[in-house]
Amino acid sequence: MPPLMGIEFLCRVADVLSEYLGGLNEDVIKDNFVIVYELLDEMIDNGFPLTTEPNILREMIAPPNIVSKVLSVVTGNSSNVSDTLPGATGSCVPWRAADPKYANNEVYVDLVEEMDAVINRDGVLVKCEIYGEVQVNSHLSGLPDLTLSFANPSILDDVRFHPCVRFRPWESHQLLSFVPPDGEFKLMSYRVKKLKSTPIYVKPQLTSDAGKCRVNVLVGIKNDPGKTIDSITLQFQLPPCILSADLTSNHGTVNILSNKICSWSIGRIPKDKAPSLTGTLVLETELERLHVFPTFRVGFRIMGVALSGLQIDKLDLKTVPNRLYKGFRALTRAGEFEVRS
Amino acid sequence: MAPPAQSQRSPSRPQPSGKSEVSDLKLQLRQLAGSRAPGVDDSKRELFKKVISYMTIGIDVSSLFGEMVMCSATSDIVLKKMCYLYVGNYAKVNPDLALLTINFLQRDCHDEDPMIRGLALRSLCSLRVANLVEYLVGPLGSGLKDSNSYVRMVAVIGVLKLYHISASTCVDADFPSILKHLMLNDSDTQVVANCLSALQEIWSAEASTSEEATRERETLISKPVIYYLLNRIKEFNEWAQCLVLELVTKYVPSDSSEIFDIMNLLEDRLQHANGAVVLATIKVFLHLTLSMTDVHQQVYERIKAPLLTLVSSGSPEQSYAVLSHLHLLVMRAPYIFSSDYKHFYCQYNEPSYVKRLKLEMLTAVANDSNTYEIVTELCEYAANVDIPIARESIRAVGKIALQQYDVNAIVDRLLQFLEMEKDYVTAEALVLVKDLLRKYPQWSHDCIAVVGNISSKNVQEPKAKAALLWMLGEYSQDMQDAPYILESLVENWDEEHSAEVRLHLLTAVMKCFFKRPPETQNALGAALAAGIADFHQDVHDRALFYYRILQYNVSVAERVVNPPKQAVSVFADTQSSEIKDRIFDEFNSLSVVYQKPSYMFTDKEHRGPFEFSDELGNLSIGGELADDVVSAQRVEENDKDLLLTTSEKEETRGSSSNDSAYTAPYDSSSASVFASQTQIESAISNPTAAGHSPQASLAIDDLLGLGIPSVPAAPSPQLKLNTKAALDPSTFQHKWRQLPVALSQEFLLSPQGVAALTAPQALLRHMQSHSIHCIASGGQSPNFKFFFFAQKAEESSNYLVECIINTSTAKAQIKVKADDQSTSQAFSTLFQSALSKFGIP
Prior knowledge:
The complex is a heterodimer of chains A (341) and B (841). Chain A is of the alpha+beta class. Chain A is built from six helices and 18 strands.
């Protein structure tokens, strides 16, 4: 039994269920057991995974959403199972439902990047990587054939594609050529290694003596990405040997949660001052100095910039439908961004 | 379930007592059954839902059966589905109802709507009631011919379900051959995939009893089928792709151009979004190129990036599974990830099982160029909040230290740990310093200076205390206070609860005594007295032994207790390379995650015939080797290959005598021919020598058994063997995997035979004259190992033999496997008589 097959399948089941039910917990499953049963019935039989493509499942079993509720009231037809079998099971583009029609043809491409970084005790950037996804939301009529090209595809380290992407054009010209599924999907994910710097800096200082530990954390902009950095947060776990903590900041709010997690939400960095967090930690009585140092986890969000520098060049359609709208966005947020102290 | 059942929080309601509710429901259902009013489906649905929720909380609603079936005569699929769930549940426990159910389902199998046909068929096959199988055959047969692929897909799985209920019914109805036809001709790939998985299961199970099934199973991995599936692979869904890829790993391509074709075709699978597909593809690549050293290295390069991506994206469970595979790979080829070590840095909020594996990876990838960074990183973890991980990372630093030539920096780090004044850090570091000193005694001065400052009171853990004591004893001449520290420990003998520590204390006092007698004499006396009075048997015995040996002769005692030591060059590896190889063969399976070959955690009966059986570890390699040896057109190339590997080996060995820490990983590295030889040697040479014995390279010369056309022999009267039998190595390997051991015997060789067996070739020629051919052989005096095969004259029935001969005990062990089990005894007699004539002119 290939282990990843099991794990991937379970993840997929969880994804599909939460997509259908808008969440996944015991109560939700109890309330919707019929739909869960129907879904599992289609997804696996006798231990073999069958259909897990959300688009096709949605055609076979309608999700219990408001629309279908309204629809059922209006039409009096309340079956959430379509009367016909999905056309796609027979077609050669299994991820695409047969011939949707839209009055407005729209396609949105989002670059969503997460920055993983580790900064060590000496303030050295040990590791900095971007994990990015190209998310596409397509509402296009017929069977559209799209080509997406990047201005600088060479920076990508490892890429993974949605099954709709054709391999050869990528191999030869780094072009993403594909017939998209309808609706939202993840077209591609990629990694960019070895970035040289992070947009913000976090400088923690901990000095401890005589049973007390003085904390001082500075946060500021290091490399201005050109857009505002917002939703900056800082979280760290207080070591178990700490009896009490008194922490204040000159910007934003500091909370110490019950499980000894200290959370400092900064928001945006003000122009006039660098936000700082100061305070003292009182150690357990017999301890002189602190031996276990917390790791600071940083969160932030930058709209409009892909920090890896990846840029979309253009998106072409083979047959251009009337009234086409193409939209591009980019977003970078912190993934596993850690600063050790 | 269109009106979402928000209102329907059945389990949270007061528990219905049963009877009255059920009869109430019965009444309502009966009213609805005949009704054709609009909206009736909705009310039916509500009722059905109630029924099923009662059913799930354990109320017996079987009395509603008739009404339920009546009500489900609609076109509403949700109703149908709920009804199927209901009947499926009760049919199993209530055979009377089952018959009713069958009628109801059979009727639905002819419904106009393909979805209903499919669902009914699925429910029908899921009943699993043994005495009703006859009713399944008809609907299944028509289901397999249905025009809608959904129904066919369900029917194929139905066949498999039928097979598990009643194998004979399934085979008699000729379903397997229908499936085979479907598999090769159906337009829907899901049907094809289901056929494939069903057939694999059926034929594997049948193979033990029917020869035809064995042959059919072989055809599954024959070239036409594999090519057919590979050409359509992009049409399959991701799960089916995994299935096909798994099948491809079992396929043995005939030449290298075929291998390249397959790899080119599959290369883009490495970019698939589903990790399972990626890993399955990697397995194909690795296995295809096992015998092509250069390409194998390129494969490692190629798979690096996808694997690393898999580690860092996805759930922690996924990371763990992938990391286990990486760990396996890195053991075979330590250099592949040496520049990507940063991927194995631990993230703060990873679960500790992932962190632990990452630490192992960091130790494994450490080499001269990255050690400094890795050790720096590991040292940061020592201050981790998670104490087990902190300990683990200190141990990792130690392991790296034991691997490296340049331990300078690491020793400093370890000594810093000792000064951290954190009890667990000190404890771990002490154990490591001890191991380090055993390997690099030259560092003793630096270490002892620091260790001497550690107060034994701060060390509580037995292991650490034992380590400290060992150092005190071993280096007492360098430590000013050693005798006094020991003395105070002896005084507090009773406070020490661990027997391990007391044993070490005794030994340490003894050693100290030999080095500094006047200062230690008191302590020694006290220690021996306390030791002899100890409750623990071992402590008592050791104390008494020391006492007596001192009494007998002090210098003898010193030679026994404190002989001059040689630095330990390699610490024993916990897992033999054979086991590691076996795990590698089972790449992309749970074996890798558990770090055990499958036979260690599965029962015999659950091991599929495709899996490796117990005795196969060495054999898979034997076969590969034979692959190199026998195929005549390749012999020459391979000779060169072998020469090359021999010289490579010599180099390794040269370095290993300087510092053998490198031997283990290097030897088991990926070069396939090379690895396989190491393997066969290790299998053959004395097990305690662990296969890395220096003389092993000599064995290579003797390793070749060439299939020279044979001289006509005098066959035995009962059994005639084909004198010109031919079997290619891959077939041999394959058969060996599949056939059970028909016979296993041990017997004595004649003294002449033993005398004549100086090199394997002699025996090979002899056996060949008896129409028994050798496919692989190896070993050197006194242990030899051979794989023979023979074919029955006029028939293509094969006998496979594994023969292990030990010339020092004059014993021969044989294991016989045969296509035709009934004649295996006759063959064994023939084999033994042939062997007994060896050496007699």
